[in-house]
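Before surveying the methods themselves, we first show a specimen of the format, giving the amino acid sequence and backbone structure tokens:

:::
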Amino acid sequence: MATQPIGAAEMSVRFLLDGSVVELDSCDPTATLLDHLRYKLRRTGTKEGCAEGDCGACTVLVGELDDTRAALTWRAVNACILFLPMVNGKAVMTVESLARGGELSPLQAVMAKNGSSQCGFCTPGFVMSLYGRCIGANGHDLPVADALAGNLCRCTGYGPILAAAETVGPLSQDDSALVAALRVIAPTLDVEGSFGDRRWFAPQTRAALTEILAKCPDARIVAGATDVGLWVTKKLAKPDTLIFIGHIAELRQIEETSDGFTIGAAVRHADLQETFAKLHPDLGELLRRFAGLQVRNSGTIGGNIANGSPIGDGAPAYIALGATLTLRSRAGTRSVPLEDFFIAYGQQDRRADEFVESIFMPRPDAHDIVHISKLSRRFDSDISAVCGAFKLTVRNDHITAARVAFGGMAATPKRAPACEEALTGQPFTLATMQDAAIALRADFRPLTDVRGSAAYRLEAAANLLLRLWHKVQGEAVSVLELDVSDG
């Protein structure tokens, strides 16, 4: 079906693969980079393991032009849930890119010598995650275990992989030719395409997004595709209209004031570590355990919130800190306290023509005690069974205000009013915390599912509140001891 552009627009997708331009004049908007690499370009080193962004076998590096540094910013990402329009104007490296002139890269050579491969299926993904670390993606000082949290080895051959990775230091890479080439192919206009009777857009500005959404209110907004990608790979969904927002610089800004941080909706989780750590160390640690690195390199804070998952890690912490959303449409902007944004399971306070523009995170003050805990079946790269977040304002040894929020306890991320009432105005003592833990049972009627029973969730939530007390007293609290499943 022929379609008319909404405005001036480019119509093709172009990206660099080892410096050569790959151009797609007609592009299925939900075709994955993985499938294109394997079945069109015969780059079969990149594997499909889970097709949902969990195992890392499909890991590739994607480089974006950073004109402020005249350099590329590389990220390790899951190609299995990365749609082709999302790599428009970017550079791609696969495991085949590393060997030059028939010689393995230093990282590959060390891994081969160290026996860091068993069946070998997952090895290319491990290599790409580690190579990204070696060239400074997310920093040379990123711990190896953190860099590999999103990679699974079904043979459990982690020992030799970790040992090899520790012996390879930073590697230099000359990206000057890629920078010049990307400047040539980088989109300067909004990008728009059609594929059969399906349509997709990739606006370059917030204003363009506003206009597109006003005319196509049923369109699906895609930021990192870490959830939408699964609709396609697992449910075989084919959304009629998609809007990719990854090129909108206005949505990728972080602004700091004395009151806190305003974070653009398209800021990736991997770029929030420093900001979150400034707000509170527990928030920074929560982000470190947020999925695997590949997912953090793609998923955005706005997408995570707009998705509205009751077991998403971020929302309980943001609610406890008093976060506020800004939503934008052609009619203007409006602000919504984050706890009011979640109405019911799968339902949020967002009109069809609105999008999440930013989130404001207030800075805790000196009188605030903040504690955030996540419980999951495995420590790394797993969704919460229960996530508890607490902000208590304590003056003269009395709790003058309390904000308590949980994920995994209801159909939405939710505050605990009975618990908050039991805390507010009371002395900051163990007895008060124990009374509030009992009151917490009136706030939730959790479900039993594969991540934990209702009884486990209620007991765990109460214990997380008590854990806050013990931590404030300076008592050692083992994260690993608490991160166990209902058993």
